[in-house]
Design brief:
With 153 residues, this protein is mainly α. It is built from seven helices and two strands; from the N terminus they run H-H-H-E-E-H-H-H-H. The radius of gyration is 17 Å and the shape is globular.
């Protein structure tokens, strides 16, 4: 699949469009009451408005489909573009990077990580399994982040 440049009218790249202040479009959305309640609860837990949560959720899904990066063996892991524009694997619906879980696992158990990050143990285990299957990619993200940290001398 060809990656889109964000300038093409056919695609919508949230990072590109927000940075360049592209005009937003209104879209009426009918949701089942139970889905709206769940979305409101999750938005509150994330500390964002319902509108921002829905935008984030749709952008995450559309971005993943456009880039065709998701690994079907790991349905709870998707890719999201960060501030750098680089697609980064995250736990779907949480924004928590896989590398964050991997680093936390060095000092804790799956159960501790699940409690610390308000995740299920299954989510943590899937993140760790994703790491095992994509070790080179995740290790590169961890090394890049470590290179940005100030050196204590």
């Amino acid at each position: 699949m060809q990656l889109l440049d964000g300038k093409n009218d056919v695609a919508y790249d949230v990072v590109y469009n927000i940075r360049n202040e592209v005009i937003m479009t209104r879209y009426a959305l009918n949701l089942p009451n139970s889905l709206k309640r769940d979305a409101e609860r999750l938005a509150k837990e994330q500390g964002v408005s319902l509108n921002q949560f829905i935008l984030w959720s749709v952008a995450e899904k559309v971005g993943g489909l456009l880039q065709d990066l998701d690994d079907p063996n790991f349905p709870n892991v998707t890719y999201r573009r960060g501030a750098s524009g680089t697609p980064t694997p995250v736990l779907r619906g949480t924004g928590i990077r896989i590398q964050t879980i991997v680093i936390a696992f060095e000092d804790g158990s799956s159960a501790e990580i699940a409690e610390d990050y308000d995740l299920t143990k299954a989510q943590v285990e899937e993140a760790l399994s994703f790491y095992e299957a994509h070790r080179g990619e995740i290790d590169a993200f961890i090394q890049a982040d470590a290179a940005l940290e100030p050196k204590n001398e």
